Amino acid sequence: MSEAPSAYALAAVHLYPDVLNIYGDRGNVIALRYRCEARGIRLTVLDVSIGDPFDPEAADIVLVGGGQDREQRRIAADLVARGPALRAAIDAGLPALVVCGGFQLFGHRYVDHQGGIIPGISVFDLETRHPGPRADRCIGDVVLETPEGEVVGFENHGGRTYLAPGQAPFGRVLRGFGNNAEDGTEGARTKNAIGTYLHGSLLPKNPALTDELILLALRRRYGPDVTLAPLPDDAERAAHATAARTAERRSRARS
Length: 255
Known about the structure:
The chain is of the alpha/beta class. The chain is built from five helices and 16 strands. Helices cover 30% and strands 28% of the residues.
């Protein structure tokens, strides 16, 4: 086994950062960059917006943030045009992290509160429906059980997402609402692509998840024997623990 030497390099693509940029999701890019550079791994981040050229086969990881309905409508046609290439790359193992509005449009469709349909690209086998303007939003702190361990974050979404049978969730809800406040699922995972409602931003508080994405990208490019050197995680673990305690305290206060 070999630790990733400084000669290793990764290319991340941040899709629609000028449109899908609410709730600090750019922090996911910052955390990814920090944990790569702390290990001597060169990370290049390419911002790709509407109409910009982008070849998913040249990317090592894709990140998408969240946005409201109007922002989703702005990017929908462009994303649909990119859909076949993105699906093919993800089927071939491309890691991706897509959050909230990005997550919804990586499913089949989002049906808004007036019944209008915003098409998705069907990376995940799911549909999102808005229950109507009188319905409460799913807002609050979240704690999940995932294959990467406990994950913490913050959700704020009106849509309810329903996974098709056989579609794996990202995690199981321990605290919070999750996909639909009904079935205990949160997000979705297909191969190395993760969709989630969790803002926060997500990666700075969850170093194990950040490292998992980096490792998946490295092994896809350089082979299965790559390992990651550990990093001092005192600040990240403290932030994670604080978020988990806050979620527990607020959950008790609501009950």
